[in-house]
Design brief:
cell membrane, membrane, Transferase(Phosphotransferase), domain 1, Phosphorylase Kinase, domain 1, 8-stranded parallel sheet, repeat, 33-stranded mixed sheet, 16 helices, protein serine/threonine kinase activity
């Protein structure tokens, strides 16, 4: 064919194809929109398209191929038919749901609906899209379960469903997706365990399902996922161990399992995953050591193992991670030294090892890490100096070494070459001055050097640091005044300079710190008045200037600080023009939540303006001289949880409005002069847990509404004038643990409903006028432990057998009533009982033959004329020659006459003996005088007084091998103490005092003084006297055996391990014991010889004040002053030398010396060149070095800032107690209060068991 013919043929062929296409299109047009278009329109109907992205989806189009988001292609290479193969509607702000019509797009390979607001479930019809390769549903609000039909999509390679609300477990069918390479399902609510079919996915490279609620363990066949490169299951609830098979995933690059509950050890096999770049196992419960095989991960960049329970040492192989950039092993239990091999990781920019138990020094090799920007080694046991090389690291921005035991000085040029913005070296033992270059590059924002031993002033380099936000220097020995230019730092939000030695006034320039939120200057020596410019601090939220020497009135401008939430002005000298008053502007701001003005010299009323403090939660005004009445509108403060107004001079009634304090949990009004009736509205306080109104003058009946306060745990109404019956409603207080009603004038019967108070540990009802029987229901108080005191009432009837059920009870006081009948034999069931008192009743019959009763003091049974047996002697039948006893119906009269007849027949010596026994143990002092007048040569029978099992003098001799030196556990001026084990197995301490025969007249005096005082004392912090034995002139005291010995022995022994918590609780316990002697004993008791050797410790290191050999009972008739020196050298108050008179202030001085011993570890007697005594040494040290941790016992752990602050607070209390002038010393009650408050603001030890200083009456 010729070329021309060939050209014509080609043209005709093309014309034919065009004709065919036109024909086809005309045919389609005549048929309308195809089926896929119809399906798409159905999908559109379920969507909300606010921005009209789908506006071109025209139903009149023959095909959807030109629609927005729709892509078409031929069904195959040879077909001219176009089908929808991709639907991409991502990021179109669509909402609504996905229509089941999606299943009609059977040729679809890509479905992308991501980044919209679609909701409801995924229709199961999606499984019909059998050609689907990519399914992106992420970042929507889809919910319900993942449809199992997805498992039919055998070509699917990418499934993204993250950031939705899917729930339920992964369907098992997901394991059928054999082509799947990406499964991203994180940030949903998927639960259940991983399906066992998961590891069928041989092609899977990335699986991320973090932030769900997956449970169960990682499948052991996880090693089958041989292609896996990224595994992320963080923030789930996975348990069990990490399977060793994970080491088979040699392609793995990221293993992210943090924030689960995985346990067990980290498998060493993980070291086979040499392609790993990120290993994040933090926030689990992993134990064991860090495997050295991690050193094989040569491509690792990020290693995060923090917040587990890993132990052992850090393997040196970590130094092989030459590409590592960030390593975080913090918050574990790692021990040993920091490996020097860290210095090999030259690219390291973050190293966190804080909160472990690492020891040794900081390796100097770390200073070679030139890229290091963040270093945190805090909360460890590191020692030694801070390597100087750190000051040359130019990239260093965060430098934290706090809570260690680092010594030496801070590198002098720290900050000169780097861009530091955080420096925290607090809670160490650093000395020297604050470096002046810290803010050289003007980046420093946070500086905390608190609780060290730094001295000198705050350098100008700090006060010129313009970016500084927080300046925390609490607990050092810094001196000087508050820098006047500090407030040039316009970003400063916190100034904490407490517990230093700053002096002088607060300058008016403080008002320029416009951004200041916290200003803490407590425990310094600031003086003068508060400047009124303090009121310019509009952002101030917390202001603490407690324990300084501020004077004058509290400036009303302070209360212009409208953001103020916490205000503590306690322990200052705010008085102003006497009387100093609480400012009426107190609540000009409306944010105050915590107000403590306690222990000042404030007088006057509580201002009415206090009721404007609507957010107020705690109002603490204890220990002032405030007067007036309780404001009736105080309960407008709906958030008020604590009102503490004790130890003031308030008067008048409690108004009915108190019932409006719905949130009140503590109401303490003790030691005031409140009068009138208790309003019944008190019953509206549904949250009240502690109510103490003791030592006031409340009258009339106890309102039954009080017992609507179902949350009450401690109720103290003692020492008032309440009358009438005790309402039975008291039995509704099911949470009550302490009930004190003693020393009132309550009458009527004791309500049996008291038996419902099953949590009660102490019941004090003595000193009232209760009558009737003792309710048997009291035997139901199974938790009663400390005391049951019903003494000094008008109770009658028999003692109920049910009291024998109180198996935890330690003291039972039933004396001075009208009880009759016999002592129940059920008391044999009371193994914990230390003391009974049945005296002054009408009891009859023989004392039950029980060891605990037979060996009790005679004084516990006297004045029961029908009682016999036990320590009262045998119940012998009448002699035959005796006249018959008249037969009457009154058994008690018969028994009394019988005893009288028997007594009349006993010989003179026996009669004298009985008289001696009875009078010896009775309260009147004349009985002591009678014994003292008895010639020492008088031969009397052995006298015993003990609640312990039976024993004789011979038993004591045998138990100590005739008082052999090997049994000596202590010696004192009054005698020698031995340890003896009685036949019952009970260990006691036996103090053998020299008798008058041995030429020591004062010994017997001290013996009888101890008997007289200790015999009537019941307090947890006073040594318990179990009894005594008198044998042919030998006086033996039997005390509770204190297995830890004396405080002095422990404190100065060769192996003292008393930490601060133990020392503080000992100090508090001893203070509470002394407070009881000074304030609650009648007559009052002054110890006269307080010293560390007279503070004894039991197995739990609980303190007991002992050795009353020189005790003197004050205000006692017929007593004479002792001529002996009262006290021990080093403890004697200075005024005693010229007055020779013992007062309570002498005891307080001695107690202050004991506090100094506990704090310094030094003995009370010091070398003459150091002052001669401990008090002088301390004062000289403070004069030369200021009040600082350097004076504390070096054996104490001083790494914790709060703990050291607490120690220095107690040091200040000790200094107050040892004031030269007695009038400047507090009372022991005030000392107890100061110690408790110091703990609340300091270490916060649990002291609940030591709070009660009340006596058992």
């Amino acid at each position: 064919m010729r070329p021309l013919d060939m050209g014509k043929s080609s043209i005709w062929r093309r014309l034919f194809i065009v004709f065919v296409l036109i024909h086809v299109l005309s045919v389609h047009q005549s048929k309308g929109l195809n089926s896929e278009g119809q399906y798409l329109l159905e999908i559109k109907r379920n969507l909300v398209d606010k921005f009209h992205h789908l506006s071109n989806w025209n139903p009149n189009d023959p095909t959807p191929c030109g629609w927005n988001g729709v892509s078409c292609s031929p069904i195959d290479y040879y077909s001219y038919d176009l089908v929808v193969q991709s639907l991409n509607l991502s990021s179109m702000n669509l909402s609504g749901s996905l229509s089941p019509s999606i299943g009609g797009l059977v040729q679809l390979t890509v479905l992308d609906l991501s980044h919209n607001g679609l909701s409801n479930n995924i229709p199961k019809e999606v499984g019909n899209c059998s050609n689907l390769e990519i399914l992106n549903l992420n970042d929507n609000e889809f919910e319900a379960q993942i449809p199992k039909e997805i498992g039919t999509l055998s070509y699917l390679t990418t499934l993204k469903i993250y950031n939705n609300r899917f729930s339920g477990p992964f369907p098992d069918e997901i394991g059928n997706l054999s082509s799947l390479t990406q499964l991203l399902a994180y940030s949903n609510d998927i639960n259940g365990s991983l399906p066992s079919s998961f590891c069928n996915l041989k092609s899977l490279k990335s699986f991320r399902a973090g932030q769900n609620r997956l449970t169960g363990s990682l499948p052991s066949n996880i090693g089958s996922c041989e292609s896996l490169q990224y595994l992320g299951l963080a923030q789930n609830e996975l348990t069990g161990s990490i399977p060793a098979e994970i080491g088979m995933l040699t392609s793995l690059r990221e293993l992210i399992l943090w924030d689960n509950q995985l346990s067990g050890s980290i498998p060493g096999e993980i070291g086979n995953c040499t392609n790993l770049s990120t290993l994040a196992l933090y926030e689990n419960k992993l134990v064991g050591s860090v495997p050295k095989e991690l050193g094989n991960l040569i491509n690792l960049k990020h290693l995060f193992l923090y917040r587990n329970e890993l132990n052992g040492t850090i393997p040196r192989e970590i130094g092989n991670l030459s590409f590592a950039e960030q390593i975080d092993f913090s918050e574990n239990l790692l021990t040993g030294e920091i490996p020097v091999e860290f210095g090999n990781i030259k690219g390291l920019n973050l190293l966190y090892l804080f909160e472990n138990q690492l020891t040794g020094v900081i390796p100097v090799e770390l200073t070679s890490l030139k890229n290091l920007s963040k270093l945190d080694l805090s909360i460890n046991n590191l020692t030694g100096r801070i390597p100087v090389g750190f000051q040359y690291l130019e990239e260093l921005v965060m430098f934290q070494l706090f809570d260690n035991s680092l010594t030496g000085t801070i590198p002098r040029k720290l900050g000169a070459y780097s861009l530091l913005w955080v420096v925290d070296l607090s809670n160490n033992q650093l000395t020297g001055r604050i470096p002046r270059h810290l803010c050289h590059n003007l980046n420093l924002m946070f500086l905390n050097l608190g609780t060290n031993k730094l001295t000198g002033n705050i350098p100008s380099g700090v006060t010129n640091c313009l970016p500084l936000v927080q300046l925390l220097l609490t607990g050092n020995s810094l001196t000087g005044s508050l820098p006047s230019n500090l407030c040039k730092l316009v970003n400063l939000s916190a100034i904490e300079l407490g517990q230093n030695n700053f002096r002088g006034p607060i300058q008016a320039e403080i008002g320029n710190c416009k951004a200041l939120q916290r200003l803490h200057l407590h425990y310094n020596y600031f003086t003068s008045e508060l400047p009124r410019e303090i009121g310019n601090l509009s952002q101030l939220a917390s202001f603490n200037i407690s324990s300084n020497s501020f004077i004058g009135r509290i400036p009303p401008e302070l209360f212009n600080c409208k953001m103020l939430q916490r205000l503590d002005l306690s322990r200052n000298r705010f008085t102003g023009n006497l009387p100093g008053r609480i400012p009426r502007h107190l609540c000009h701001n409306l944010n105050l939540m915590f107000l403590n003005l306690g222990t000042n010299k404030l007088t006057g009323n509580i201002p009415s303006g206090v009721t404007n403090c609507l957010p107020l939660v705690q109002l603490l005004l204890t220990g002032n001289s405030l007067t007036g009445s309780l404001p009736s509108n105080l309960c407008k403060l709906v958030n008020l949880s604590a009102i503490e107004l004790g130890q003031n001079n308030f008067r008048g009634p409690i108004q009915a409005e108190i019932g409006n304090c719905k949130a009140l949990q503590r109401l303490h009004l003790h030691y005031n002069y409140f009068t009138s009736e208790l309003p019944r509205e008190i019953g509206n306080l549904s949250q009240l847990a502690s109510f103490n109104i003791s030592s006031n003058s409340f009258i009339e009946r106890i309102p039954p509404e009080l017992f609507n306060c179902k949350m009450l745990q401690r109720l103290d109404l003692s020492r008032n004038r309440f009358t009438g019956n005790l309402p039975g409603e008291i039995g509704a207080l099911s949470q009550l643990e302490l009930l004190k009603l003693s020393d009132n004038d309550l009458s009527g019967i004791i309500p049996p409903e008291l038996g419902n108070l099953i949590h009660l540990t102490e019941l004090q009802m003595g000193g009232n006028s209760f009558s009737g029987n003792i309710p048997a229901a009291l035997g139901s108080l199974s938790g009663l432990q400390i005391a049951l005191n019903l003494s000094y009432n008008n109770l009658s009837g028999v003692i109920p057998q049910e009291l024998g059920n109180l198996v935890l009870l330690e003291y039972l006081m039933l004396n001075n009533n009208h009880l009759s009948g016999e002592i129940p034999g059920s008391f044999a069931n009371l193994p914990s009982l230390f003391g009974y008192n049945f005296s002054y009743n009408d009891l009859t019959g023989p004392i039950p033959s029980l060891p605990r009763l037979n060996n009790m003091a005679i004084s516990s049974f006297i004045e029961n004329r029908g009682l016999c047996g036990g320590p009262l002697g045998g119940c012998n039948p009448p002699l035959s020659s005796s006249p018959p006893v008249p037969d009457t119906k009154d058994k008690q009269i018969r028994l009394g006459k019988l005893v009288a007849i028997i007594a009349a027949t006993i010989g003179g010596v026996s009669l004298v003996l009985i008289a001696v026994i009875i009078y010896f143990m009775r309260r009147p002092v004349r009985t002591v005088a009678t014994l003292q007048e008895k010639p020492p040569t008088t031969q009397v029978k052995d006298i015993y007084f003990s609640p312990k099992e039976g024993f004789t003098f011979r038993d004591l001799v045998a138990a100590t091998e005739n008082f052999n030196e090997s049994f000596v556990v202590g010696r004192g001026a009054c005698g020698t103490v031995y340890k003896a084990v009685l036949p019952s197995g009970q260990a006691v301490a036996v103090k053998k005092l020299a008798s008058q025969r041995e030429g020591n007249n004062n010994v017997d005096n001290s013996f009888r003084a101890e008997i007289l005082t200790l015999g009537n004392i019941r307090h947890r912090n006073i040594v318990k006297l179990y009894g005594f034995c008198y044998h042919q002139g030998s006086n033996l005291l039997l005390y509770e055996y204190m297995s830890r010995g004396s405080l002095g022995e422990l404190l100065y022994g060769t192996s003292c391990h008393l930490d601060w918590r133990t020392r503080f609780l000992i100090a508090l316990g001893a203070a509470q014991g002394l407070a009881y002697l000074h304030h609650d004993c009648k007559p009052r008791i002054f110890h006269r010889d307080i010293k560390s050797n007279n503070i004894l410790l039991n197995e739990k290191f609980e303190a007991r004040v002992g050795d009353f050999g020189l005790a003197k009972v004050m205000d006692m008739p017929q007593t004479k002053s002792m001529s002996a020196i009262a006290g021990s050298y080093g403890y004697i108050a200075p005024e005693y030398a010229y007055t020779m008179k013992v007062t309570e202030k002498c005891d307080i001085y001695s107690y202050g010396v004991v506090l100094l011993e506990l704090l310094t570890g030094r003995t009370p007697v010091q070398p003459l060149d150091q002052g001669g005594d401990l008090v002088t040494w301390v004062r000289h040290y403070i004069r030369d070095h200021s009040l600082s941790p350097g004076m504390l016992d070096s054996r104490l752990n001083q790494r914790d800032e709060r703990t050291v602050c607490h120690m220095l607070t107690v040091m200040k209390i000790a200094l107050i107690c040892t004031s030269m002038s007695p009038s400047d010393r507090p009372t022991m009650r005030e000392v107890v209060l100061m110690l408790i408050e110091s703990n609340q603001r300091g270490s916060r030890f649990d002291i609940s068991s030591s709070h009660d200083t009340d006596r058992i009456e």
